[in-house]
Amino acid sequence: MESIGAANIGTHYDERSPIADELRDGQVHMWYWYDEQDEATLTEAVRRITRKVTDTLGLRSGERLLDAGCGPGETGVFLARRYGARVTGITLSAYEIERANERAASNGMEELARFQYGDYMELPFPDGSFDAVLALESLQNAPDPVRVFAEFFRVLRPGGRIAFSDFSLESSAEPKRLATFMSALKLPRLPTLREWLEYAGDAGFEVEEYTQCGPRVFGRRSKYVKAAMSRRQELLAKFGEEALGEFASRHLGFFAPRRDQVGYVIVAARKPRG
Ligand SMILES: C[S@@+](CC[C@H](N)C(=O)[O-])C[C@H]1O[C@@H](n2cnc3c(N)ncnc32)[C@H](O)[C@@H]1O
């Protein structure tokens, strides 16, 4: 697979995030529905993932959180508001930085939640400068996960926590379908749950919790389509036919794998106290 540079990833999210932001209320990530009859709205289904992943961090007021791959900021603003955490969000997307800082200001959270350009492959922060690190569906684009986990380990204080969530490989039976998916989402690799745990463990983290809830996430794609289609006219009026068409065409690759081929993992781990 070709290497995907930071500028390329930044452009990918500059193009993708505005409509995703609108559709999922600032959370550019997956959803969680219990079953096909679950009546939760898309916003609520997406918030469930935000809460499920960030709950594992056990944040306390005043703690310093790095939101690595922060998207358009709703997650970071939520964590500042709910826990009083001091959030530093980084992303490669200029659109996301502007939108996230706007969102922090309009929620009166600009003192607690700040967003800036940053590459998690080379973090511009001193050793031990955070109590917690969050990577909510951002590691999927990492050119070198070993390096990123080493960076997270470095910037955390001893005893600091990390939480991440992402896609996992559950069955490689139909490689063409997977290749289409990975190319559409710009994924250099699709690790298994075991590989995700190894990345964290090999960097020195002690894994404390993990789950694979793909059937309620990737497996509920049809509910996402239904929810998105119900807002089609509204999105059309705001973004226009061409932008919406491009956004939809990117989803073709997303839908390529069988439902049982792609999982969703949530992992919480700690840097040893020493
Ligand atoms: C799928 S979005 C998730 C956004 C956000 N965590 C959320 O859940 O709403 C992936 C995010 O990872 C960021 N990202 C990807 N590669 C990155 C890198 N090398 N350094 C920093 N951020 C990165 C993208 O810019 C984007 O904000």
TrEMBL record:
Keywords: Methyltransferase, Transferase. The keyword Ribosomal protein does not apply. It comes from the Bacteria. This is 27-O-demethylrifamycin SV methyltransferase. Residues 66-164 form the Methyltransferase type domain. One of its GO terms (molecular function) is methyltransferase activity. GO terms for biological process: methylation.
